[in-house]
Amino acid sequence: MFTVPNLITLLNLVCGVFGIALMIQERTVEASMLIVLAGVMDVLDGWVARKLGQTSSIGKDLDSLADLVSFGVLPGLLLMNYIQEILLAKLYNEATVSFSRAEALQDPLMLWKYVGLLLPIAAALRLAKFNNDPRQGKHFYGVPTPMAALFVAGIASMIFVFSVDPNDEKNLKQVSSIETLKKNDRIFMSVGKTETSTDLFWKAEIKELADSGILLVQGPKKYRLPVVEMNQKISGGEVYVKATGFFNGYFFTLTGLILSALLISILMLAEVSILAVKQLPERIWKISFFAGWGIVLFGGAFLHWSMVPSFSHPEGTGWLIRLSLNTPITALLSALPFALVFHLLFSLIYFSLKPQQHEI
């Protein structure tokens, strides 16, 4: 029972349990890092078991139990947190009076967050099916649970990359006219300088933009500014929009996350042969696959690197948060969803052109 591969599998489980503990504290970026670490352990335990000749039915079952926690329950909690934060922002922005977070969490709209439970349910069904389906010994049918979990983990980093830190200027660009405001849902206004001469910004949504005035909403607060006053702020260089506006909210929308949860759950259970690294039958396909996957991942990471906000770690910050918000790591994680989508599309195209099955 206590073989080297099984001990590595237990490390996978520890990552999942630790990630769940972090999710209780709503530390999503760190929890997403632990999904990646669990993925490394999941690959390593199988490789070590084959090298040492220590494969067993106990190891197989233990691997499935660890995967359910790390790649089912933990990503499900992450998705629930994403949806909850969107719903809280929606409730605060639409509020006419101030109310507490506890009151907001009791709103019936919050029931949508439980769509995230689809992930652990689909993961449990897939893992049970995987252990009892003899075809899975030669091919992967449906998206493997680690791949689905990595996609969800990547969203956490994308949210970080494509959001604006209060002290960050890199992701902002100045508004040149009122016309520019009409093309943006969110604006950022400079409110002063800190001791380090960095602009501070407050974020607002434009609820109404008329010829006479502009209605801005910041949480439960609403401000109405005359057009003349806004023009003065624009000419004074105090009004900004997100430079990465195309990506703003691309994944982080209620509809997008609900559809993602449904699609991931369906693909985990689908009777579709998905291309995995060890399924590639020919050297040429291996080269093309790794080259394509590498270009998407590292090319995307390089692009995102320039977008990651600059930040400093306060005294006493834990090592995991320092590692999680390290610029290169965050950039790589934020590129993962694009690379995994490429992986899936490549698989579907490949098997549609070569429908015959290949042995591992």
Written account of the structure:
The protein has 360 residues and is of the alpha+beta class. It has 2 domains: 193 residues, Four Helix Bundle (Hemerythrin (Met), subunit A) (Up-down Bundle), CATH 1.20.120.1760; 71 residues, no CATH class. Helices cover 57% and strands 11% of the residues. The chain contains 12 helices and 6 strands. Strands 1-6-2-3-4-5 form a 6-stranded antiparallel sheet, with helices on one face. Helix 1 packs parallel to helix 3. The longest helix has 38 residues. The chain is elongated and about 75 Å long. The two termini are 27 Å apart.
Compact overview of the structure:
With 360 residues, the chain is α+β, with helices and mostly antiparallel strands.
CATH architecture type of the largest domain? Up-down Bundle
Total number of helices: 12
How big is the Rg? Answer: 23 Å
What is the CATH topology assignment of the largest domain?
Four Helix Bundle (Hemerythrin (Met), subunit A)
- What is the CA-CA span between the terminal residues? 27 Å
Mean pLDDT: 77
Work out the number of β strands.
Answer: 6
Beta fraction:
5-15%
**Share of helical residues:** 55-70%
Major sheet size, sense and barrel closure: 6 strands, antiparallel
- Structural class by SSE content: alpha+beta
